[in-house]
Specification:
The complex is a heterodimer of chains A (344) and B (539). Helix content of chain A is 31%, strand content 18%. In chain A, the strands form three sheets. A five-stranded mixed β-sheet of chain A has the order 3-2-1-5-8, covered by helices on one side. Chain A has a five-stranded mixed β-sheet with strand order 4-10-9-6-7. Chain A has a two-stranded antiparallel ribbon with strand order 11-12. In chain A, 39% of the residues are buried. With 344 residues, chain A is of the alpha+beta class. Chain B is mainly α and 539 residues long. Chain B has a single domain, classed as Cytochrome c oxidase-like, subunit I domain (Cytochrome C Oxidase, Chain A, Up-down Bundle), CATH 1.20.210.10. Chain B has 18 helices and no strands. In chain B, helix 11 packs antiparallel against helix 12 and helix 13 packs antiparallel against helix 15. The longest helix of chain B is centred in the middle third of the chain and has 35 residues. Chain B is globular, with a radius of gyration of 23 Å. The chains are: A alpha+beta (344), B mainly alpha (539).
Chain lengths: 344, 539
């Protein structure tokens, strides 16, 4: 048994520090109020204890002033909690533009992580120090939740959609990864480690491992293998939309509506193509439901993202940051465009 | 004291005998005792599950029971404690017994419906028990989809139907109380002369009637998707898993107030009688019950801050959650102020009331922590949550329930309990409770996720403390079980009004006659008007 009585949790990200100041405020308010109540109860209970059964306490009538004070003062203190809490929450919900993208797939009962360079891990995630990491997550089965206490990060991982979380590690080391949403028999075994490494060390780690191929190039192979390229042609007009430079742009549908071609849209278009038809095209694409795994989808996604822009369609949202197609840290468009995520 | 007459008078316990007279009774007081028996059974059953859970968690590896068994244990602990114990606890026992008596009525408005409610709860409860015996359920009491609809291979449908059925008991009881409180008050008993327990039961009933149908429908949808593969929640069938969470918490957050509002009502009664004073700020306390009932329906999204609900929705729910904390704070301050210049005795119910106020304060303050968006992200689904809601449900509701049970025990049974043992057990429960659950706040903040069968070693210190506390708590709960049963036969005969209380229920004999009052009482003063009462006595 570990005898140490640990009271403080490691702060391995800037957000952790910000959140802990808020925690301190909450603790101080709680301490003041509980001490006040306990002390008053104790004091009154002793001072006004019944000394004889014939006592007749003087009636103290409710005082409006008091009622107002103990309604307004807690309310104000709580509004500080509210605003401060929203502030920290917004920080947690908005990955910076230069964040490095990592994909996470949860399944009963393991975490699979994939780096853009192609490194794949199970129940582990290696990241470089000082670089914001954006996690794009989905589940193959039930709801899981990606929880890293040291970074104060937690977000649910759902089947059928992408969610995102992000953190900026500020300390090297090995940190807990837990599944926080109950997901069945071995829920408590769905745990792992996050390794924060010096950037140089991280590069070495990335380069190691046998025959890692970037996600995008795996996606390209899949694209050929599944015969997507037969219709989605890039060299000439095909029967299906040209995917070159499409990611992150607005796509006009047959309904007249324009949707953003983000991760969720692409995912839906592969699994349920008839849901949204691009204007000018027929509903002819077959569904790939059951033929591609969540990981395949992410590889296809990366390939589509990596497709350069045709000269005609300049100024798309994705991949503007000069980086080569399959390079870490492109300003990938958000999977779930969090409201307020306007700082691009 | 006029104990001599008590023995000879016919009362609701003695005017009929035999099993049939109990199973077919329409007397609200007898039905209250039927509920008392049933929910006590459920409480100790749920307690046994909790005991095994705490023993398993004594050591980091999952070694006492298998992972699957552990998951069934915490699921059944939650399901039984929430749906079969806490929700019916105070309303169905104390409420059933007291609502008519406190307002000077002969019975509830619909006595047959009242008996039916008990039978409905029994049918629901038996289904859950049957599901438990044939294999149990491992979805947690929250039944999150798509795990519960497409992945779990336990008895989800049967348990879900049990909860569906038990819900109707809650709805009908609420309906009965609302009509009774509106239509059957004694002459002169205006709304602002009502005991605060009645106000809180009224507010609770509103939530029961409006909220419970939603959980019933939700359970039904789970059953439909699981049994007939209708795509409602599972994305693989075209459904939306987050929709389930909205529906589930739309009931289950207000349900928290179904569980705690009645407790607040009990505390108002106890604090007043044992300090011999009117409750400070009567109207503020009464209105805060109604405010809680209304606001409770607007805060469900605070269970879903990391569920992928929109950031702005989370903001709104966070704000509204702070609003619901205000009326709760008002109550705590008013109870405390009631003590000021009182004549305070340390009888057992008052010890429970002190315990309630203290523990509810901690539970409420940590509730504001959880309403705070950024902080909630870190601690949601950890032991911090577990500690928080046990401070409300066990530290709050359970303390109030035991306090109320002791306070009205002489009236319900005609017997006194042994005071010394009762005070001792109140103290043991208070200490055991804190030792069990306070360490859970710390380990939750440190990152210990809930519903873990095995855990990293660094958390063991806190789990050991928690298990030690749970052992003390278990002893604390067994003591009253023994002496309360003992008192039924050997307890001193209770006088009609052992606490010198002002409520109408104390103006009749102990135990009361079948029709509660020989003559319908007329009320000409406010509740808890001790100074006027004393003057009348002297005069």
């Amino acid at each position: 048994m570990n005898p140490s009585l640990k009271l403080v949790l490691e702060q391995a990200s800037a957000t952790a520090v910000h959140l802990d100041y808020l925690t301190l405020y909450l603790l101080v308010v709680a301490a003041i109020f509980s001490t006040l109540i306990f002390a008053l109860i104790f004091f009154f209970a002793v001072k006004y204890r019944r000394r004889s059964n014939h006592e007749r306490p003087v009636e103290v009538h409710g005082a409006l002033t008091l009622e107002i004070i103990w309604t307004v003062v807690p309310f104000i203190l709580m509004m500080v909690m509210f605003v401060w809490g929203v502030n920290v929450f917004f920080e947690m919900s908005r990955p910076p533009d230069d964040a490095m993208n990592v994909y996470v797939v949860g399944k009963q009962w393991m975490w699979k992580t994939q780096h853009l360079e192609g490194q794949r891990e199970i129940n582990e995630l290696h990241v470089p120090l000082g670089r914001p990491i954006k996690l794009t997550m989905t589940s193959e089965d039930v709801i899981h939740s990606f929880f890293m206490p040291a970074f104060r990060v937690k977000f649910d991982v759902l089947p059928g959609r992408y969610t995102t979380a992000w953190f900026n590690p500020t300390k090297t080391g090995k940190y807990h990864l837990f599944c926080a949403e109950y997901c069945g028999t071995l829920h408590s075994g769905m745990i792992g480690w996050i390794y924060v490494m010096e950037p140089a060390e991280y590069e070495t780690w990335l380069a190691g491992g046998s025959g890692s191929e970037s996600l995008a190039s795996r996606g390209e192979k899949l694209f050929q293998y599944l015969a997507c390229a037969n219709c989605h042609r890039t060299d000439q007009p095909g029967r299906c939309p040209n995917l070159q430079g499409m990611f992150g742009t607005g796509v006009q549908l047959t309904t007249g509506e324009t949707v953003k071609a983000d991760e969720s849209y692409i995912r839906e278009s592969i699994l349920n193509p008839s849901a949204k038809i691009v204007a000018g095209y027929q509903n002819i694409m077959p569904s790939f439901q059951g033929q591609v795994t969540e990981e395949d989808l992410l590889q296809l996604m990366e390939y589509i993202k990596s497709l350069g822009k045709p000269a005609a369609a300049g100024g798309t949202a994705a991949g503007n940051a000069t980086a080569p197609p399959v390079r870490v840290g492109r300003g990938a468009a958000p999977a779930r465009p969090a409201p307020g995520q306007k700082n691009r | 004291m006029i104990t001599a007459t008590v023995e000879t008078r016919e009362n609701y316990l003695t005017h009929e005998y035999g099993v049939k007279s109990w199973l077919l009774t329409q007397d609200h007081k007898r039905i209250a005792l039927l509920y008392l028996g049933a929910i006590s059974f459920f409480f100790f059953l749920g307690g046994i599950f909790a005991t095994v859970i705490r023993l398993e968690l004594l050591t980091p590896p999952g070694d006492l029971v298998s992972a699957q068994t552990y998951n069934k244990l915490f699921s059944l602990h939650g399901i039984i404690m929430v749906f079969l114990f806490l929700v019916p606890s105070i309303p169905a026992t104390l409420g059933n017994f007291l609502v008519p008596m406190m307002i000077g009525a002969k019975d509830l408005a619909f006595p047959k419906l009242n008996l039916l409610s008990w039978y409905i709860l029994m049918v629901g409860g038996l289904l859950v028990l049957y599901a438990m015996l044939v294999g149990g359920v491992d979805t947690g009491w929250t039944f999150y989809v798509p795990f519960s609809t497409s992945y779990a291979n336990t008895y989800v449908i049967m348990t879900g139907m049990g909860i569906f059925i038990a819900g109707f008991s809650s709805i009908l009881t609420g309906l009965n109380f609302i009509v009774t409180i509106h239509r059957m008050r004694a002459p002169g008993l205006t709304w602002f002369r009502l005991p605060l327990f009645i106000w809180s039961m009224y507010a609770t009933s509103i939530i029961q009637v409006l909220g419970t149908p939603v959980i019933a429908v939700t359970m039904l949808l789970v059953v439909l998707e699981r049994g007939f593969h209708l795509g409602i929640f599972d994305p693989a069938l075209g459904g939306d898993p987050v929709l389930f969470q909205h529906l589930f918490w739309f009931y289950s957050h207000p349900a928290v107030y179904i569980m705690v509002l009645p407790g607040m009502g009990v505390i108002s009664e106890i604090v007043s009688v044992y300090s011999r004073k009117k409750v400070f700020g009567y109207r503020a306390v009464a209105f805060s019950s109604v405010a809680i009932a209304i606001l409770s329906f607007l805060v469900w999204g605070h269970h879903m801050f990391v569920s992928s609900q929109s950031v702005y929705a989370s903001m709104v729910f966070s704000f509204l959650s702070f609003l619901v904390a205000v009326p709760s704070a008002i109550k705590v301050f008013n109870w405390t102020a009631t003590l000021y210049k009182g004549s305070i005795s340390y009888d057992t119910p008052m010890l429970y009331a002190f315990g309630f106020i203290g523990l509810f304060t901690i539970g409420g303050l940590t509730g504001t922590f959880l309403a705070t968006l950024g902080f909630d992200v870190h601690v949601t689904d950890t032991y911090f949550i577990v500690a928080h809601f046990h401070y409300i449900m066990v530290g709050g509701t359970m303390m109030a329930y035991l306090g109320g049970l002791h306070y009205w025990w002489p009236k319900m049974t005609g017997r006194m309990y042994p005071e010394l043992w009762a005070r001792l057990s109140a103290l043991v429960i208070f200490l055991g409770f804190n030792l069990t659950f306070f360490p859970q706040f710390i380990m939750g903040y440190l990152g210990m996720p809930r519903r873990y069968h095995a855990y990293p070693e660094e958390f063991q210190v806190y789990h050991v403390l928690s298990t030690a506390g749970a052992s003390v708590l278990a002893v604390g709960y067994l003591i009253p079980l023994v002496y309360l049963i003992w008192s039924l036969r050997y307890g001193k005969l209770a006088p009609d009004n052992p606490w010198n209380a002002s409520g109408l229920e104390w103006q009749t004999t102990s135990p009361p006659p079948p029709e509660n009052f020989d003559i319908t009482p007329v009320v000409n003063h406010e509740a808890y008007d001790y100074s006027t009462l004393e003057e009348m006595k002297v005069g």
